Amino acid sequence: MSIIRAVSFFQIAPFPFQFEGQWFSIAVILDRGELTNTNMHQIHLKARENDSFSIMVQMPEEDCKRLYFDLCMSGKPGRFRRISGKQDNPVTVIETDYASFAIIGVQTGSIRALHLYSRTSEASDAVKEKYLFVAKCINFPVNKLIYLTVQTDMCEPPSAFPDFGDTCKAEESE
């Protein structure tokens, strides 16, 4: 079963504003590709009016370097396109409760990954079990599970997002 088809198996509701705020990358399973950074990162989401998001990833291991990109709604709830420079990759929210965890599938030309995100730097055992269950249901190799390294020095949350314009609106008008 592909990541894209999994969204119909695990139903989510279309409430983008509930995703806003801080998340932590907890774990990843790669079906294809190689992981080059095994550190936990802070991810900040800001919902946009068009059911899309601005994303900022903070990397403590690189003096809190910040990466920015947009997730643009892709027609159905839970399906997005990650727009960053020349990259345009599908991202699928497979399951979430919005308050504590999100299981998200990402696909690029060379990587197919299933990510676990949490609102805190630790996920509960029940959430970890759910993540493994979902991974098995969509045929991800659970023996390749990597729990990301918690960093001792995390970054200060941003006071505001810079305004780079809305990549999603630019894409819609083309």
From TrEMBL:
Lineage top rank: taxon: Eukaryota
Residues spanning the membrane: none
InterPro entries reported for this sequence: Calycin (IPR012674), Lipocalin (IPR002345), Lipocln_cytosolic_FA-bd_dom (IPR000566)
Lipocalin/cytosolic fatty-acid binding domain segment(s): 21-149
UniProt xrefs under SUPFAM superfamilies: Lipocalins (SSF50814)
Family label: Belongs to the calycin superfamily. Lipocalin family.
Protein name: Neutrophil gelatinase-associated lipocalin-like
